[in-house]
Structure prediction request, 259 residues.
Amino acid sequence: MRTFKSLLFIFIFSFFSYNGTAAERTHELLNPEWSFKGFFGKFDRASPQRGYQVYTEVCAACHSMKYLSYRNLSEPGGPEFTKEQAKIIASQFEVTDGPNSDGEMFTRAARLSDNFVGPYENMQAATAANGGAYPPDMSVLVKARKGGADYIYSLLLGYEEPPEGIVLDDGVYYNKYMAGNKIKMSNPLSDGIVEYLDGTPATEDQMAKDVTSFLAWAAEPHLEARHKIGFRALIYLFIMTILVYFSMKKLWSRIESKI
Ligand code: HEC
Prediction:
C-alpha cells in the first residue's frame, strides 16, 4: 500500500510538474515563407540589407554580434553591401586599439577587418543595464534557439497583454512565444521605428521578417554556397548514374550474347 501511495504521489507530482514547467512553449510558432529555406533557398538580397538597418538602429542598443566583422557585410551570400558601403558602415564605429609606442591604448574608426562593435564592455555591464537579464549575442542566435528563424520572428511579434490572473513584475513583459511567456525585453519594434532607405514601409511584420533574415544569414553565412554545392553534387550524381548504367549495359551485352 505504501509503495502504491508513493508511486501515485510520484505520478501526480511528475504530471503537475510537467504541466507546470514554465519552459514549455505554449503556442505554435508563426511560419512565414522564407526565401532562404528549402533546396534552392536564397536570400532575397534586399531583406537582409534592411534587416541590418533594423539590427543596427534598434537591436544593437542592447545585443552584440561579436562574431561578425564589417567585411562580412560585403561578402557574397548575405546583405551584399558593396565594399565601399561596408567601409563607410565600419567607419561609423569606434574601436579601442593599441597599445601605441607610448604604451597607451587609443580609439580609432573601425575598419573592414574589425568585428562588430558591441553596446557593452562585458556581460556583467550588459546584464546590469537590462534589469538582470543578459541580452544574448545575436551572431548565431538563430542556430542556438529551437525553431530558428520562425522562433525569432514569432517572438518579435508575440507581445500581448498578459491573460487575466498573470501578474508581471516591473521590467517583465508577456510574450506568447517566449519559454514561460515572460521576457525581460520590452517589445523592440513598433511601426515606423526605422525609416527604410529603400522606401519599404517599416511595419512591425516587415521589420521582424527583415531582421530575422539578417540574423539567419549571420548564423549561417555559407547557406547559399552550400545549397549551390548540393545542387551541383546532385547533377554530378545524376550524370554518373547514367554513365554507369550504360557501361553496365555494354559490359553485360557481351556476356549475354555468349549465353
Ligand atoms: C533595450 C534593450 C534591448 C533591445 C533594444 C533589444 N533587445 Fe532583445 N533582449 C534584451 C534582453 C535583456 C533579453 C533577455 C531577455 C530575457 O532573458 O528575459 C533579450 C532577448 C532577446 C532574444 C532571446 C529570447 C530567448 O529566447 O531567450 C531575442 C531573439 C531578441 N532579444 C531579439 C531582439 C531583436 C531582434 C531586437 C531588435 C529588433 C532586440 N532583441 C532588441 C534586450 C533588448
About this structure: Residues 54, 58-59, 61-63, 130, 133, 135-136, 141, 145, 152, 155-156, 183-185, 188-189, 211 surround heme C (CB under 6 Å). The two ends are 79 Å apart (CA to CA). Confidence is low (pLDDT under 50) at residues 17-22. The CA atoms of residues 45 and 167 lie 42 Å apart.
